[in-house]
Amino acid sequence: MGTQNTSAPPRAQSAPADNPPRTRRHGGGIIHENTRHTTRFVVIGNHLVQHKELSLLAIGLGCHIQSLPTGAGADIKTLTARFPEGPTRIAAALRELEAHGYLRRERHRTTTGRIVSRTVSCNQPQAAARPAPADTGGCPDRRLTQRSSTEPTAPPREPRPAEQPSSPPEQAPPPHPHRITPDGTRTRPTPRPRKALPTVPQPSCTAPALLQQATDLLITLRRRDPRLLLSSPDTAHLAPGVASWLERDVAPSAVRHALTADLPDDPLRRPAALLAHRLAAQLPPPPPFRAAPAGPPPPRYVRNCDGCDRGFRAFETEDRCRDCRVAGSAA
């Protein structure tokens, strides 16, 4: 009776409140057999894969979108061709992700004037919604966000005169294409001014036929390379430069080869600027001077002499025969 069982706990241990719920003990529940990934993996938070309001299709689609590289297609047509689900279910799943902040669709205007839609994937919607601290360079510190409100914090230190910031840091504009004013109205942002194209050589002859031939040559460049699809203002700017090449006895095939040869493999951001640079930098010299060929001699007509009425062959300005001209000069 005096011997105590030292292995028995003095009292029942209560589990902490922040522990996950207990799993089934009698052979049930999942068992993980994990192997560390070294290549081709992506980190996805449990707030997405264990979301209580998202459907299973939306969770799987969100994981697939986060694993895609930058620039990959994530529209309904591309996802329908990739998965067996139809476009209706995939569109509904995308709307779920967009409603919970895991997906954002923005509209941007390209340099050619087209409006395209871009899909932005957010791996932490809550972190993206919070303003980033200034001292972390825009990246929220998880330890600072999870700090308890009861933890005492040190009072802010007043900066010394040498440490006074010169100007407050500028905040980046919101990523949305529309801005919302304090009164609740939505305004369109002011577009950035487009950088002017480089100057091109101007022809000495501005005949409409020559400019039309230069315009037709620029329009057909997209058959050689689809990236050389030019807009109407860019074509009108480059046409005089092509005309200056054509008036220098350069064949249209040679002009087309000079503009499309050895193009970079990277995507062309401004193809019109590249063509304008080539037209100005590779302008050939003018052709050599060629004297105009001598024309045929003036015709001679048969007429009667005004002095002796004798017929003779003479130019249009001669009215007397040779004998009458000699006699007149002697007299």
* Major sheet details: 2 strands, antiparallel
Number of helices, counting only DSSP H or I runs of 4 residues or more: 12
Shape: rod-shaped
Rounded to the nearest angstrom, the distance between the terminal CA atoms is: 178 Å
The count of strands amounts to 6
Order of helices and strands: HHHHEEHHEEHHHHHEEH
Low-confidence stretches: 134-154, 162-169
Question: CATH top level of the domain at 46-136?
Answer: Mainly Alpha
Rg from Cα: 42 Å
Explain what you see:
With 331 residues, the protein is mostly helical. Among the domains are: 46-136, Arc Repressor Mutant, subunit A (Orthogonal Bundle); 208-263 and 270-281, no CATH class; 301-330. The chain has 12 helices and 6 strands. It has helices spanning 46-49, 56-67, 76-82, 87-99, 125-129, 142-145, 208-219, 221-224, 232-246, 252-260, 271-281, 322-330, and strands spanning 103-109, 115-121, 179-180, 186-187, 301-304, 311-314. Strands 1-2 form a two-stranded antiparallel sheet. It has a two-stranded antiparallel sheet with strand order 3-4. Strands 5-6 form a two-stranded antiparallel sheet. A hairpin with a 5-residue loop joins strand 3 (179-180) and strand 4. Helix 2 packs across helix 4 (87-99), helix 7 packs across helix 9 (232-246) and helix 9 (232-246) runs parallel beside helix 11 (271-281). The chain is rod-shaped, with a radius of gyration of 42 Å. The model is unreliable at 134-154 and 162-169 (pLDDT under 50).
